[in-house]
Amino acid sequence: MHSVVCIKQVPDSAQIRVHPVTNTIMRQGVPAIINPYDLFALEEALRLKDRFGGKVTVITMGPPQAETALRKALSFGADDAILITDKAFAGADTLATSYALAAALRKLNELTPVDLVFTGKQTIDGDTAQVGPGIAKRLELQLLTYVSRIVELDLDQRTIVVERRAEGGVQVLKSSTPCLITMLEGTNQMRFGTMPDMFRAARYELQQWDRTAAGIDDVTKIGLKGSPTIVSKVFTPTPRAKKAEMITVENGKPADLAVELIARITKSFPTVEKELAKRA
Amino acid sequence: MSEETQAPAKKKRKIVLDERLQAYKGVWVFVEHERGHIHPVSLELLGEGRKLADSLGAELAGVVLSAPGDEAKEYCNTAFEYGADLCYLMQNEVLRDYRNDPFTRGLTELVNTYQPEILLLGATTQGRDLAGSVATTLKTGLTADCTGLEIDPENRSLLSTRPTFGGSLLCTIVTLNYRPQMATVRPRVMAMPEQQPGRSGRIIEHPLAMVETDIVTKVLEFIADDTRDKPQLPFADIIVAGGRGLGKPENFQLIWDLARVLGAEVGGSRPVVQAGWLELDRQVGQSGKTVRPKLYIAAGISGAIQHRVGMESADCIIAINNDPNAPIFDFAHYGIVGDAMTILPALTEAFRQKLATLKQAG
User: Fold this and answer.
1) Rounded to whole angstroms, how far apart are CA atoms B178 and B162?
2) Residue A233, domain member (yes or no)
3) Is A159 on the interface with B (CB under 8 A)?
4) Is the pTM of this model over 0.95?
5) A232 → closest Cβ in B12, B351, B354
6) Range of the domain at A268
7) A63-85 per-position pLDDT tens digit
């Protein structure tokens, strides 16, 4: 069986800082990582390989530096990795991204038929959760989002049963392969890479596909040209007209600070006092 | 690559709509329901959609896809009471449970037939699954998790604002020569509008030519969540939240102590959830829950935008931080500069006494 996991290299957003004076993003020194949500997808694909054999291919669309993310995925145990990279992809929004990835997947499917496509539920930089569904629609694959567990997979019958996180409960869905699964976070834990896999990842001859290799003729569908949305401005939120009223007391004692704070709240926020009265 | 990594356009791009697209009129809200209940986010969106429709001088429509039955009409009536002028109603047995294929096909068909200029959905597991699929099928733009929606008075286009760069900045996204303009909004981001009992509207029914055998994916079972001991942050009235400034996981006990006295829910910032100090359902912020409590107490939380967008609608925000320059003091109502380790226990005691006084006063 052949699983393809779509991953994205993202800046570690926990370490992004905004310059206090210029309000611009300070990118320098921010490490690039595999989107953490994608690791749940990769681990799930690796587990299926452990059970059913076959192989796991990871793909990513991004700049040449995204190679690092692919090698990391190889070190966890993925068999093959393809970097889809072309200047023409720059500035893509989610619609243009799903177009390019769908084209690459179509190509990949010609080489080795694909049974399952995996993505993370969303990325930590874009947070859109749109590319997975987009790929599924373009390839006319059954779409199974927010999957918390793969209950059954029958490769002969080409059927799959999954548990899907829905609003207010879990849907148990039966579908058919090939399909696209977006994995929910916290559903598994990424394994440690083995020594042999780490060596293999370092030496692996990574394939790079430009748009032609990915089978894309129409440049109006990719990159900035293929994107219906544009960012018209980036800004810092307007500060509240009034900054916080700072509570201080002469002796600096925490107990007195606390009493002073509560006195001020109940004076200015009757709704809070009402809420407290309910609890008394 | 996504909207996030794009640089903002240097010059303001002029949006010129094809004549074909100028026919797209009106604001739509997808009315999400599961197990017989409308999701509150749909009502919040009707409130927001009402404002957009008014500023466009257009109509606001609810879109209901449902199994045939009385509840379908009930959903429409509720949509009217929350601001819709009309509802598009599609009834078919295949729409009994949410599934991607029939809902995508149904909503796509409605859009192509009645041509709205704006389509809003809740950023729920259902709304995001559907929005991404419908936008791709229609080949139009979709902006996720918006925190602000406005109409550009110059060209009537939708300005969708959302956090970017992991929540450190905000960006405004516009849709170029494509319609409808689609956006999702997370629950509790927009205020719940007043219900107007008895307000009514017209229903436009549209059939969905689909039968069960057309659909590959089947629902075998629905296992409802046991909500008894799940945290319900989005609807909590008082929340006590802690951040990395608390130093170590054991210190979080002080947050729980205060929460117990206040009958409050406990929340946290992303770093403490990522560090495993707190369960995922308690994360407040752009990548966690959006909350609108009456009182929000934040201890050891610096107040990055990522966190701020999830809680700034709280009526009263109290911040405790040992850094006098922490950004949280820019938008909290009250601030205490100091060590949360000593202030939290003092606050717990003071609130205990306050509650005792209130009890005596009856």
Assistant:
1) 20
2) no
3) no
4) no
5) B12
6) 239-280
7) 999 999 999 999 999 999 999 99
